[in-house]
Amino acid sequence: MGSAKKSSSAERKARIEEMRRAERARERRNRALTITLSAVIVAAVGIGGFFLISSADDDSDGDSGKAGDAKAVAKFTTTGDGERVWDAKKLGRTHVNGKVNYPVTPPVGGNHNQVWMNCNGDVYTKELPNENAVHSLEHGAVWVTYNDQAKPADLKKLEAKVKKTPYSLMSPVKKQKDPILLSAWGHQRVVEGADDKKVDAFFSTYVQGKQTPEPGAACTNGLGQ
User: Fold this and answer.
1) Which DSSP string do the residues of 84-107 spell out, in sequence order?
2) How far apart are CA 191 and CA 170, in angstroms?
3) Which helix or strand (DSSP H or E) is residue 145 part of?
4) What tens digit of pLDDT does each residue of 90-109 get?
C-alpha cells in the first residue's frame, strides 16, 4: 500500500514538472512570435501598408467578431453521479472582442477573449471576466467557483488546494446556483464541500486532462487582478 502511494505521488510530481516544462517552452515560442509580429507591423507602417493581423496565438479559429455559440453551450448531458458534460466539438473556440452571452454560469467553454486568466494556482477574491476564464479552461485549467452560501472552512481548504496545483484557479461567482462548483472545458459538477471525494477526482481527471483543447498552453503571463 505504501509503495503504491509513493508511486502515485512520484507520477503526479513528474506530470506537474512536465506541464511546467511545456509551459516554459510555450512562453518562449510566444515571445519569439511577438517579436516577429512586431517587426512585420513596423515594416508595414514604414511603407504605408495595412495589415489586418488576427490574433490567434493558440486557437485555430479566427473570426473574432462573433459571440456565437450559445446554443451549443446550453446543451449538456448528465452522468449517473451528477457531472454535467458538453460535446467539446460543438463548443466554439473563436477569439472575440467584448462580452459573450454564455447560457451557463459559470461557463464551461465557447468563444472567448484572446487573453487567458492566470491559472497557475491563482486564487482571486473578485469575480473574473468570463471570457478570460474560459480561455484558461481551454488551456486545461480547473476553475473552482463559489457563491455567498459556501462555508468559509471549505473555501479555505479549496484555496490551499488550488494554490499548490498548476493549471487551476479559484474565484467567486455570486450568480451561480450552487455554493461550490468545479469546471473544466466541457465539464462541470457540484460538490458538497472541500472534503467531497469528487474534488480530488475532478482535479486528477481534468487538470491538463484529455478534454483540454490546448494542452501545455500557458497559464501565466495572462490577465490577473
Assistant:
1) EE--GGGS---B-SS----SSSS-
2) 14
3) strand 142-146
4) 899 999 999 999 999 999 99
What nine digits make up the cell of 166?
A: 498548476
Within 8 A by CB and 6+ apart from 2, the residues are: none
pTM: 0.73
- How would you class 52 by CB atoms within 10 Å of its CB: exposed for 0-12, middle for 13-18, buried for 19 or more? exposed
Could you give the CA distance from residue 205 to residue 211 in angstroms, rounded to a whole number? 9
Per-residue pLDDT tens digits for 113-124: 999 999 999 999
Place of cell 473556440: 93
What are the CA-CA distances from residue 71 to residues 65, 76, 86, 181, 211 (Å)?
Answer: 17, 10, 11, 22, 20
7 burial (CB, 10 Å; 0-12 / 13-18 / 19+) is exposed
| 199 and 105 within one domain | yes
Look at the chain and report how many structural domains it folds into. 2
Q: Which residue range(s) make up the domain with 45?
A: 1-53
CB 135 within 8 A of CB 116: yes
- The residue with cell 494542452 is 215
108 plus 159 within the same structural domain: yes
- Give the chain's radius of gyration (CA, Å): 19
